[in-house]
């Protein structure tokens, strides 16, 4: 069931993040208290994204199970969803504690206030991912290792981090700086530095990044047959 998937993920993450200050049982209770139906839906979509987009995986039930059990990026997203709910509930101190513990556990630094959509694939293996406080990442994005969504240090006011559209691919060690918009379906290639808005479906690269070409479709890596999609959905919804 949906509840079983959520419970499995949150229990795994709780045991990975536990310490003398906060045991796993306390973390499990906190997850149960704070997560909403929206968060559960997002976690289900994140599992599907990890199963479909992880290297050497295939969009089937076994890959979905592997995403739940072994994918550190998936677990980092679960921890962030808890931290984000705590932040929105004006429990900023506890939110920052969860973020700090998650950062040490999964090599990610995602501010609790950052907004992440569903269907996110986060690869946190190797160099860590950094996502700033006012960043927004919309649905179905791919975030590979070493990505930074940061500020320039020059923006006035609070809104100083990137706004990432739907289906964007952020390549290894790419950097997006400032309160700029990355259009739906864009691709930021590896090690590029982006400091200006990117049009939808554009493929950009370089330092500073420039448009090199345009894509014809959004997220071709998500194009899978109905049978495989049904296999994954059955894994996450079977009672």
Automatic annotation (TrEMBL):
Transmembrane segments: none annotated. It comes from the Eukaryota. Residues 220-239 are annotated as: Disordered. It comes from Eucampia antarctica. The keyword Phosphoprotein does not apply. This is serine O-acetyltransferase. It is an enzyme of class 2 (transferase). Residues 222-239 have a biased composition (Low complexity). PANTHER family: SERINE ACETYLTRANSFERASE. One of its GO terms (cellular component) is cytoplasm. Belongs to the transferase hexapeptide repeat family. One of its GO terms (molecular function) is serine O-acetyltransferase activity. GO terms for biological process: cysteine biosynthetic process from serine. The keyword Transferase applies. Its EC number is 2.3.1.30. Pathway: Amino-acid biosynthesis; L-cysteine biosynthesis; L-cysteine from L-serine: step 1/2. Residues 1-77 form the Serine acetyltransferase N-terminal domain. Keywords: Acyltransferase, Amino-acid biosynthesis, Transferase.
């Amino acid at each position: 069931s949906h509840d079983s998937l959520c419970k499995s993920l949150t229990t795994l993450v709780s045991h990975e993040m536990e310490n003398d200050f906060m045991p796993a049982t306390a973390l499990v209770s906190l997850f149960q208290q704070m997560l909403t139906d929206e968060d559960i839906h997002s976690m289900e979509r994140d599992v599907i994204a990890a199963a479909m987009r992880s290297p050497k995986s295939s969009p089937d039930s076994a890959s979905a199970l592997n995403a739940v059990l072994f994918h550190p990026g998936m677990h980092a997203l679960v921890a962030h969803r808890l931290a984000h709910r705590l932040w929105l509930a004006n429990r900023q101190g506890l939110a920052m504690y969860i973020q700090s513990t998650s950062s040490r556990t999964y090599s990610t630094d995602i501010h609790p206030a950052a907004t992440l959509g569903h269907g996110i694939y986060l690869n946190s293996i190797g160099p860590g991912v950094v996502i700033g406080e006012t960043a927004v990442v919309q649905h179905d994005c791919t975030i590979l290792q070493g990505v930074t969504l940061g500020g320039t240090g020059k923006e006035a006011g609070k809104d100083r981090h990137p706004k990432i559209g739907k289906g964007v691919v952020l390549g290894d060690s790419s950097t997006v700086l400032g309160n700029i918009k990355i259009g739906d379906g864009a691709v930021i290639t590896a090690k590029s530095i982006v400091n200006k808005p990117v049009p939808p479906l554009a493929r950009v690269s370089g330092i500073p990044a420039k448009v090199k070409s345009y894509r014809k479709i959004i997220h071709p890596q998500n194009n899978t047959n109905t049978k495989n999609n049904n296999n994954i959905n059955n894994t996450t919804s079977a009672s």
